[in-house]
């Protein structure tokens, strides 16, 4: 039997199919991710192409506003005259990219540190865990705001706007490694006293091999669960930083900077610039979190409800 | 196989093992548990050497110390006359091939994320890098067959097997490197009674075919009688008696051994003839002075409360008991 067929027949897929919330949120997440990935193909305009933007088109409401709506712009336009739909699709692309890579960075650092401190214990463990404690006592946003503000002041807004994606990934990625390190360490502590690890030691395997080949694969399920939640968290952090003006620049907006750019117009009646990207952000985060919750329930047999 | 003559296969000399103790920076000291106290044993080649004793007497700690999972706190462990307890992981490698271990719980001793084939191949891939894939596969199949497993099980995961099948898989893993010496830490106590005999027979067949030496830890005296050629009885981290199995069962000398053997249920209708002991086993954190058994021993005298008896040849067996030495029993 091929691996795909085995997977499709597995308990995991069976439980997934039975859970309507899981299927629903999976479809929503996949649809949004697909839209984001295919943005250059499906978006009616390219919001980064300045030649297509006309300032005369600014602040046009969505089409369902009969009096002022314009058939060219389905969801209206923003203060620069960019098509909202296209800008949201491109913005989601940026948000998801930052979320994904930031989590990749968090996971790499966190898993490595968690594995080392859990398996080696002693001073290595004490050092990294105290470091994690210190880092957790400072909120992610605070660390990020200070770092990004200092960077922006030191290198100027122009260079900053070019490096914004990279900086956001680095800052969000480094700020949240303790989540992974602690989770992985806890699983490693539980696994390393099991007899299969002793058996590996009796065979004479190196510590690296035991850690990577034997212990790590047995800690994957909690890693998978927190990864989904962490992607949502990273996207929220990015949105918050962008909202505060420390994230993506106006000419390459993410969902957060779009929300922020519409904020000053909200009382002049141009609600859609803020509200529509907010709805997209909320739906995206909610679906990812629901999916993560479901995954946690399935991978942790102690929580079986029925 | 070349005989090494007078040098026994494994020697355990004055081994002590303590857990806990000194606390580090910011952590308070833990109470010291004296798990092994001055244990001296010699395992000659070809024996099925059994260690018996009740729960918590240090049998498993001794097994794990011998195989190198715990470093001893004091004393030496020698393999064919070479000291092995202080070697680094790298220096120990040749001995890893010669000494293997079978664990108690077959549900925990196999990695749940690896197929049977991966589990069995791994020792060969580490220690015999020159072997080709085909040679490795042939070897795995041969060993699987020798322990009574179907080689076609290779692609499956441990959770798909029963306890007895898993234990045979872990015996196969221990045999992959053609070891001389196997430490078996209660290999059948987690199994169904109906499966125990079967697994025991697999181990005995392997011993005959491969000229193995076992250090077999158990608390089941009927297994010792069936399986062992030598027995050492442990109580509270010390060896109190060591003898050939037949001799120990026909004439136990140490008062603890006598009490232990009298606890075996008898089917011949001669009635119960327990040696009743008073009190509880003292904790290993606070050992009694003198002979560790004296608070519960019916033959204890003044001397037993102050002096620690050592294992000495007394007639047919080695005992650590003043009463036996002085001819009071």
UniProtKB/TrEMBL annotation, chain A:
SUPFAM superfamilies listed in its UniProt record: MetI-like (SSF161098)
Alphabetically ordered keywords of this record: Cell membrane, Membrane, Transmembrane, Transmembrane helix, Transport
Topological type in the membrane: Multi-pass membrane protein
Pfam families: BPD_transp_1 (PF00528), OppC_N (PF12911)
Domain (ABC transmembrane type-1) ranges: 92-292
Residues spanning the membrane: 21-43, 94-122, 134-153, 159-177, 223-250, 270-292
Gene3D superfamilies: MetI-like (1.10.3720.10)
Compartments in which it is found: Cell membrane
Predominant localisation class: membrane
Homology family: Belongs to the binding-protein-dependent transport system permease family.
Protein name in UniProt: ABC transporter permease
Organism of this sequence: Sneathiella chinensis
Classification of source organism: Bacteria, Pseudomonadati, Pseudomonadota, Alphaproteobacteria, Sneathiellales
Gene: dppC
Automatic annotation (TrEMBL), chain B:
Domain ABC transporter: 10-261
Matching PROSITE patterns: ABC_TRANSPORTER_1, ABC_TRANSPORTER_2
4Fe-4S is among the record's keywords: no
Superkingdom, natural source: Bacteria
InterPro entries: AAA+_ATPase (IPR003593), ABC_transp_ATP-bind (IPR050319), ABC_transporter-like_ATP-bd (IPR003439), ABC_transporter-like_CS (IPR017871), Oligopep_ABC_C (IPR013563), P-loop_NTPase (IPR027417)
Single annotated GO MF: ATP binding
Keyword flag Nucleotide-binding: yes
Membrane topology: Peripheral membrane protein
This protein's UniProt keywords: ATP-binding, Nucleotide-binding, Transport
Subcellular location as annotated: Cell inner membrane
Similarity annotation: Belongs to the ABC transporter superfamily.
Listed name of the protein: ABC transporter ATP-binding protein
Organism of provenance: Sneathiella chinensis
């Amino acid at each position: 039997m091929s691996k795909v067929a085995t997977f499709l027949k597995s308990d995991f897929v069976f439980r997934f199919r039975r859970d309507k919330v899981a299927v629903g949120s999976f479809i929503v997440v996949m649809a949004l991710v697909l839209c984001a990935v295919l943005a250059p193909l499906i978006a009616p305009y390219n919001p980064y192409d300045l030649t297509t933007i006309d300032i005369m088109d600014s602040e046009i409401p969505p089409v369902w506003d009969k009096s002022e709506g314009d058939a060219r712009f389905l969801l209206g336009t923003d203060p620069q005259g960019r098509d909202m739909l296209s800008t949201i699709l491109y913005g989601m692309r940026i948000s998801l990219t930052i979320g994904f890579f930031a989590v990749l960075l968090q996971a790499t650092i966190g898993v490595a540190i968690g594995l080392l401190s859990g398996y080696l214990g002693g001073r290595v463990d004490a050092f990294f865990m105290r470091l994690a404690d210190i880092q957790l006592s400072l909120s992610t946003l605070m660390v990020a705001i200070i770092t990004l503000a200092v960077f922006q002041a030191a290198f100027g807004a122009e260079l900053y706007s070019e490096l914004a994606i990279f900086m956001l990934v680095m800052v969000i990625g480094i700020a949240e490694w303790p989540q992974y390190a602690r989770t992985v360490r806890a699983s490693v502590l539980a696994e390393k006293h099991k007899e299969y690890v002793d058996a590996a030691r009796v065979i004479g395997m190196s510590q690296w091999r035991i850690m990577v080949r034997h212990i790590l694969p047995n800690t994957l399920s909690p890693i998978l669960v927190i990864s989904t939640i962490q992607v949502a968290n990273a996207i929220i952090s990015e949105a918050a930083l962008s909202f505060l003006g420390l994230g993506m620049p106006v000419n390459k907006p993410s969902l957060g900077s779009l929300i922020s750019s519409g904020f000053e117009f909200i009382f002049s009646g141009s609600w859609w610039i803020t509200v529509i990207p907010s709805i997209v952000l909320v739906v995206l985060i909610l679906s990812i979190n629901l999916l993560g919750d479901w995954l946690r329930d399935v991978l942790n047999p102690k929580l079986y409800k029925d | 196989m070349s005989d090494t003559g007078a040098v026994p296969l494994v020697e355990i000399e004055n081994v002590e093992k303590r857990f806990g103790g000194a606390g580090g920076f910011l952590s308070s000291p833990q109470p010291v548990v004296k798990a092994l106290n001055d244990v001296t044993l010699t395992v000659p080649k070809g024996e099925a050497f059994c260690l018996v004793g009740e729960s918590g007497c240090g049998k498993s700690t001794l097994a794990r110390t011998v195989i190198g999972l715990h470093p001893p706190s004091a004393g030496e462990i020698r393999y064919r006359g070479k000291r092995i307890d202080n070697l680094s992981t790298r220096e120990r490698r040749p001995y890893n091939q010669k000494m293997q271990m079978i664990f108690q719980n077959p549900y925990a001793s196999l990695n749940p994320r690896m197929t049977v084939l991966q589990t069995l191949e791994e020792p060969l891939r580490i220690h015999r890098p020159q072997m080709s894939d085909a040679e490795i596969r042939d070897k795995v199949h041969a060993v699987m067959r020798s322990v009574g497993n179907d080689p076609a099980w290779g692609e499956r995961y441990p959770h798909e097997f029963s306890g007895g099948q898993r234990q045979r898989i872990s015996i196969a893993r221990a045999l992959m490197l053609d070891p001389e010496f196997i430490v078996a830490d209660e290999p059948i106590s987690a199994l169904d009674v109906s499966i125990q005999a079967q697994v025991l027979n697999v181990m005995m067949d392997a011993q005959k075919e491969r000229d193995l030496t076992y250090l077999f830890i158990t608390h089941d005296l009927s297994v010792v009688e069936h399986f062992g050629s030598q027995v050492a009885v442990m109580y509270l981290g010390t060896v109190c008696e060591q003898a050939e199995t037949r001799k120990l069962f026909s004439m136990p000398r140490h008062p603890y051994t006598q009490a232990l053997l009298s606890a075996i249920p008898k089917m011949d209708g001669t009635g119960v003839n327990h040696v009743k002991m008073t009190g509880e086993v003292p904790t290993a954190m606070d050992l009694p002075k003198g002979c560790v058994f004296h608070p519960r021993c019916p033959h204890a005298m003044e001397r037993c409360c102050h002096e620690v008896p050592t294992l000495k040849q007394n007639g047919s067996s080695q005992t650590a008991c003043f009463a036996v030495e002085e001819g009071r029993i």
